[in-house]
């Protein structure tokens, strides 16, 4: 009896074979062991000069806060130094395989938050620098952050090594698993943190499980209602954002009564632009809320100095609160080395990158542009300020907890890359051995030393008066 073969099945098999061959060819051209290499180039830029160049496009009175936060520790410096590392990564070996990169995939840019279905999920949560680029750049930045965090926690060298190895090996094995999965399975995959905790609870000490559950319970309390209590006070019978200068500056502190009303009217018009970036059904929901107040807010470490605002909205039933965070989107630090964005609006670049990489994104995620066509043109993206958000307390982690967190982050990054790149080719490139894992351990060690030297350079710049750093803010 003749067997009929469907053409589409042949095509699929050929595609898998071709993609596997592509990965092997990339490995032959750029062996996995070459990723261990890091040597600062002879014409490497002064790291302080890179930060000073960034400062030219930031709010001047906030720049000293950024420097102060980066000087808190080598790990804090690393968090703020994405632009420095982007230049260094550009000269390292490339596999030639591209994904949607986070661009700043250090371990503090992962966390828990609420999905639209009101489940706590774990995922990447910062996409200011997102851009298509080499997948290994994200892996190297994440792995190095694991090593620096382990050093900051005074972990022994073998525990530092374990954190990096666990992170990278989980990335590799997760990518291999997704290489054998269908596109829909990859797209639907997400990490619901309660399920993960239940699955692996018996592998950890009871105290660690208890502390994690407390962290998750705390995350659930971080919503717009709790933000209303923390961030506002009643003025003339209405909630108004409190003055906590310089970290939170209400709009009435930025001008007089007339200026405030003019700014409020301007913001209402701008919010109309943002509204158009939302799906139609989200616009309907957004329209139920009334914009009532605005404040400038300092956020993060690397982002300090870019414009960030929080807008308070109240619903018609019981004054239900809703906070929107509106954050400036500047060009990605990767653009100079990986090519420009296909999006003219950097807010749109951030939002589309986030939607591509995250399994579940905020329902109010959108973008806008202010003063279009003028020299003051500025791009922004917006999302909810508080929605069950929680972050791991990295500095409190013992070696066991840090290794577990490293595995969680490594697997999460692999899933994000599998959604946007050729997972079969990447898995083929990585292979089944630990050759790539070992190479990244060596890279992380070398780059952590570079990060320490750069941190000391910023310290010296502050001591000499070259830069002004405001600590403790």
Mean pLDDT across all amino acids: 90
N- to C-terminal distance: 79 Å
| Helix vs. strand class | alpha+beta
| Quantity of strands, as a count | 13
Question: Which stretches are low in confidence, meaning pLDDT under 50 for 5 or more residues running?
Answer: 1-10
Q: Taking strands numbered 1, 2, ... along the chain, how are they ordered across the largest sheet?
A: 8-9-10-11-13-12
Q: Strand percentage, roughly?
A: 5-15%
Shape: globular
Q: What's the oligomerization state?
A: single chain
State the helicity in percent bands: 40-55%
Give the C-alpha Rg. Answer: 23 Å
How many independent structural domains? 2
Number of helices: 18
The main pleated sheet reads as: 6 strands, antiparallel
């Amino acid at each position: 009896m003749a067997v009929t073969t469907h053409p589409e099945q042949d095509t699929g098999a050929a595609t898998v074979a071709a993609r596997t061959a592509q990965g092997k060819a990339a490995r032959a051209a750029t062996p996995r062991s070459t990723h261990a290499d890091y040597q600062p180039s002879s014409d490497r830029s002064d790291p302080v000069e890179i930060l000073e160049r960034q400062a030219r496009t930031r709010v001047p009175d906030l720049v000293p806060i950024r420097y102060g936060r980066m000087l808190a520790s080598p790990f804090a410096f690393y968090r703020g130094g994405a632009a420095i590392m982007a230049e260094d990564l550009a000269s390292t070996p490339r596999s030639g395989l591209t994904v949607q990169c986070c661009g700043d995939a250090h371990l503090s840019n992962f966390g828990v938050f609420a999905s639209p279905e009101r489940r706590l999920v774990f995922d990447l949560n910062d996409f200011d620098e997102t851009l298509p680029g080499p997948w290994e750049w994200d892996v190297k930045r994440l792995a190095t952050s694991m090593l620096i965090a382990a050093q900051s926690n005074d972990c022994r060298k073998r525990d530092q090594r374990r954190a990096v190895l666990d992170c990278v090996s989980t990335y590799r094995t997760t990518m291999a698993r997704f290489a054998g999965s269908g596109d829909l399975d990859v797209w639907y995959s997400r990490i619901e943190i309660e399920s993960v905790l239940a699955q692996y609870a018996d592998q950890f000490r009871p105290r660690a499980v208890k502390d994690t559950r407390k962290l998750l319970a705390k995350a659930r309390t971080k919503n717009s209602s709790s933000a209303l209590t923390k961030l506002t006070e009643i003025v003339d019978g209405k909630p108004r954002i409190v003055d906590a200068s310089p970290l939170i500056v209400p709009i009435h502190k930025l001008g007089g009564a007339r200026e405030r009303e003019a700014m409020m009217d301007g913001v209402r018009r701008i919010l109309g632009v943002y509204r158009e970036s939302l799906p139609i059904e989200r616009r309907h929901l957004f329209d139920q809320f009334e914009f009532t107040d605005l404040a400038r807010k300092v956020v993060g470490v690397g982002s300090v100095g870019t414009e960030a605002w929080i807008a308070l909205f109240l619903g018609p039933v019981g004054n239900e609160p809703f906070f929107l965070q509106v954050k400036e989107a500047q060009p990605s630090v990767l653009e100079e080395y990986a090519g420009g964005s296909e999006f003219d609006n950097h807010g749109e670049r951030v939002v589309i990158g986030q939607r591509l990489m995250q399994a579940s994104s905020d329902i109010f995620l959108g973008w806008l542009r202010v003063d279009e066509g003028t020299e003051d043109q500025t791009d922004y993206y917006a999302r909810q300020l508080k929605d069950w958000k929680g972050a791991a307390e990295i500095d409190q982690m013992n070696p066991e907890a840090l290794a577990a967190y490293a595995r969680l982050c490594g697997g999460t990054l692999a899933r994000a890359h599998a959604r946007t790149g050729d997972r079969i080719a990447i898995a083929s490139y990585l292979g089944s051995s630990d050759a790539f894992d070992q190479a990244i351990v060596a890279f992380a060690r070398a780059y952590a030393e570079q990060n320490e030297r750069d941190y000391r350079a910023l310290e010296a710049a502050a001591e000499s008066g070259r830069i002004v750093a405001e600590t403790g803010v």
